[in-house]
């Protein structure tokens, strides 16, 4: 994929997938085997009204979506234009709650791609990636028609 | 569970569900039958992650499973301790289709500080779960 094609695919993933659109996900960056996305804080996404912290489930969805972007950006679509992925397994460690009313950003890296599986690691943070809110490890099935 | 105890459990469940704005965003609700809680997520278009099938977003499925575990802990915890998620492992067994989803949690161990919970979600029959979660939750004093 050219950088422009990759950018267009990533933009499509945040804008056109109904759940991504409903959460208001935005694209931060995309590159070969890598993706970054953000979920802006919103009142209806709060998990604990006492603290106004965004819900764990929102972070889960952000991580899943961002890991999916890293997985699909690991393919050479000029060779495999119709390949798609589905989450097989997702493990999330929650280090700490996000700051009240804070946006959360996720950075994901597909560090190994086989014929059938994409292995992805991700970090979610509110300020800087060296102080994560959550870290994750995922495996995606690679579907080739 | 005695009638008053069941009533209190149902009240704790409602308080948990109504207190979380994100629960309303998903459209998640839950029912008690005796001491057994079932979480119910009606299908809605904004929950879709794959438009081709169409199927529920993996993040929605994970969130439903995690909220089911937290709701179950809210039901059984008579003290005012709010559970916080430490870690979750989610298995995606088959696509979550454009149907109502159900989930039930089993609290495997509840200690002084940590609870270990398993959750399974299904659509047509519990015998064919489409996703499962194992998680650890920190039980801390609210005040």
Write up what this structure looks like:
The complex is a heterodimer of chains A (145) and B (143). Helices cover 26% and strands 39% of the residues of chain A. With 145 residues, chain A is of the alpha+beta class. Chain A has a single domain (3-143), classed as Roll (Thiol Ester Dehydrase, Chain A). With 143 residues, chain B is an alpha+beta fold. Chain B has a single domain (3-141), classed as Thiol Ester Dehydrase, Chain A (Roll), CATH 3.10.129.10. Helices cover 29% and strands 41% of the residues of chain B. Chain B has three helices and eight strands. In chain B, the strands form two sheets. Chain B has a six-stranded antiparallel sheet. A two-stranded antiparallel ribbon of chain B has the order 3-4. In chain B, helix 1 crosses helix 3. The longest helix of chain B is centred in the middle third of the chain and has 19 residues, at 58-76. The two termini of chain B are 28 Å apart. Classes of the chains: A alpha+beta (145), B alpha+beta (143). Strand 5 of chain A pairs antiparallel with strand 5 of chain B, so a sheet runs across the interface.
């Amino acid at each position: 994929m050219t950088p422009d094609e990759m950018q267009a695919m990533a933009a499509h993933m945040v804008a056109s997938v109904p759940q991504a659109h409903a959460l208001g996900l935005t694209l931060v960056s995309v590159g070969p085997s890598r993706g970054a996305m953000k979920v802006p804080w919103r009142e209806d996404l709060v998990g604990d009204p006492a603290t106004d912290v965004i819900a764990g489930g929102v972070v889960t969805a952000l991580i899943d979506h961002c890991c999916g972007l890293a997985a699909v950006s690991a393919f050479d679509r000029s060779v495999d234009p119709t390949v798609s992925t589905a989450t097989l397994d997702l493990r999330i460690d929650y280090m700490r709650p996000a700051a009240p009313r804070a946006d959360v950003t996720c950075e994901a890296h597909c560090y190994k791609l086989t014929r059938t599986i994409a292995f992805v690691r991700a970090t979610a943070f509110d300020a800087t990636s060296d102080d994560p809110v959550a870290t994750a490890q995922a495996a995606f099935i690679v579907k080739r028609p | 569970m005695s009638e008053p105890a069941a009533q209190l459990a149902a009240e704790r469940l409602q308080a948990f569900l109504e207190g979380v704005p994100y629960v309303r965003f998903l459209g998640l609700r839950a029912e008690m039958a005796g001491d057994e809680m079932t979480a119910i997520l009606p299908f809605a278009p904004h929950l879709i992650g794959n438009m081709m099938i169409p199927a529920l977003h993996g993040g929605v499925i994970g969130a439903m499973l995690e909220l089911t575990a937290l709701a179950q802990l809210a039901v059984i915890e008579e003290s005012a301790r709010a559970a916080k998620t430490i870690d979750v492992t989610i298995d995606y067994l088959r696509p979550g289709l454009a149907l109502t989803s159900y989930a039930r949690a089993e609290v495997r161990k509840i200690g002084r500080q940590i609870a270990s919970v398993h959750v399974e979600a299904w659509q047509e029959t519990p015998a064919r779960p489409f996703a499962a979660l194992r998680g650890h939750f920190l039980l801390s004093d609210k005040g």
